[in-house]
Design a protein that fits this description.
It is a single chain. The chain has one domain. It is built from three helices and no strands. The radius of gyration is 11 Å and the shape is globular. It is an all-alpha fold. Helix 1 crosses helix 2. The longest helix has 14 residues.
């Protein structure tokens, strides 16, 4: 099911854009598929624009590859 045209692909693209927007990290520094799956479970959809920015970064920190 999609909401407003959001799909797993657009959700993944959104996550990658957010991760790389700070300029200090790249998509390969994170487990993007796992982060997308977690966000999908939390939002019950693919439109991650509704996720609070601080919550996004708190979740993303848990998927940082060391």
């Amino acid at each position: 099911m999609t909401f407003g045209g959001a799909t797993v692909d657009t959700a993944t693209e959104y996550v990658i854009t957010q991760l790389e927007s700070a300029g200090s990290a790249e998509r390969h520094d994170f487990d993007v598929p796992a982060l997308v799956a977690n966000l999908h479970a939390l939002t019950e959809g693919w439109d991650f624009h509704l996720v609070n920015r601080s919550m996004f970064w708190s979740l993303a920190a848990g998927y940082l590859r060391l």
